[in-house]
Amino acid sequence: MSHGADRSAAEPDASCPPWALREYAVLADGERGAVLDPRGRIVWLCAPRWHDDAVFSALIGGTGHFTVGPVDRRNVWGGYYEEGTLIRVSRWLTSGCVIECREALALPARPDRLVLLRRMRMVRGEARLRMGLDVRPGFGERRMDPRREGGTWTAGAAGLRMRFTGAPDAVLRPGVGLAGEFRLREEQTHDLVLELSEGVEREPLDADALWRATEREWDRAVPDCSRLAAPRDARHAYAVLRGLTSTSGGMVAAATTSLPERANRGRNYDYRFAWLRDQCYAGLAVAAHGPHELLDDAVRFVAERVLTDGDGLRPAYTVDGRPVGAQRTLRLPGYPGGDDHVGNDAGAQFQLDTFGEVLQLFAAAAAHDRLGEDAERAAAVAVDVVERHWLRPDAGLWELEDRWWTHSRLSVVCGLRRMAAVLPGPAGRRCGELAGTVLRETRRRCAGADGRWYRAADDDGPEAALLMPVARGCPGGDDGGAATRAYVESRLTEDGYLYRFEHPGVPLGEAEGAFLLCGFTMALAAERLGDRVGAFRWFERTRAACGPPGLFAEEYDVRQRQLRGNLPQAFVHALLLECAVRLGGVPALP
Questions:
Q1: pTM value?
Q2: Which residues are within 8 A (CB) of 320 and not within 5 positions of it... i.e. 6 or more apart?
Q3: Which of 149, 254, 267, 512 is deepest in the core (most CB within 10 A)?
């Protein structure tokens, strides 16, 4: 097996031109995610885990891809996810053929090994298909030069070993990788199996067995959502959350890095890490539906982090619980309009609202009798931290400059009140008393005469984050919730979509995209305030802001109808799921 450095890594792969973000699909198995374009090219995949270097980085202007599709380039593409899974079926229609490719990252997954399955099927007609595989570890810095051993191609580089089956007649082209063609007749299928691992694997790459195990695991992991509003979208949201959640329990915020929120503004970040707040949102959405597996995962991962770090709790971690590295730049061109950042400086911030969301998650788990001793101890630690630090300025939900953000304090009040309702005796009374103390001071600093909540102690402007406490029924009764909702809606909406906050001197849609998390939160807040018509309107409008694969990014360019930022954005899918539960008639937690 030979390998070497490839100093041409900074040159974009001309065979993988970029697409609008809305066109990409994602395969995921909990440990890593693959981004798939409409022409059958997998253009992004990190190995062996989310936060490791990419082996396919064409998405951000690097090299490396895995391509299958018809030779005839005069085709129309399409596709769909099999319901309740991240098994993707890509389709191409030519003048005389219909071709499908069923693809998935195999389950159950291991952190040190990935298996990528691609099964071509000729639905109608007969056609020649092409295959190309160029594995480039280290974001393209290294290359693999496979050699054939029987019907299997093997190679190694940068601590990874490759096995690839299904293309014994492929040709190795130096600097390009493996390339080949094969012909399929009607109803014929052809399997390609790619394995990348950190060790030597001897298990046969049996495509049929791998597909059966993957189907069983998806069937087991994703619950029935037929009684919810928008049941298919709800199951898809749950599948996305499952696909982003590791066996460690950690859930990454998104599968990608450096996809721009706004072109050439420097606003592109690495989201391949587990934000505790996002994980709590997902856990709360799942808990609203039932005591499903992802609730247990969230509680376990969050409790471990709180018990380990206490006052030093970080907003984000790798999925194996390690600190997130500082942001750095690769030497790649980046996705158009973006850069090529890896790492994230937000991993070292103090964000008070995280503790509030943690307490809400633990209370939701307790309501399902799923808290456990470790999580109960973690809840006590979180209360201690809040008691010591709630007066301290923090970076807040949007990870901005340290200020006395209203949302952060109300999030803490929500968490403390939820814990007061489930903890017996002195521990519960302590939570209730602390919640009252925080609320009184927050109202003194951050509320207007009409009860409306201000954005911060020094800023009386509108803030969509304030809808989250309203959605959670906090502080209680109306207590400014209706006035806050009305003010936010009057100042931060455009064409039925919601923005985070105002940027002085810049129109809403020019400053940034509509924030999809906020749109779904508005739906929950409207439902909580008794406006079900408004809730459904916000829900339906916001869930329309996805691409053909049904995936959501963080932001939505309303005018251009385009996604903005990394994808799939976990917390958007989490809030869609929670909306589907609440609007489907499931009673809200008290």
A1: 0.96
A2: 49, 111, 246, 248, 250
A3: 254
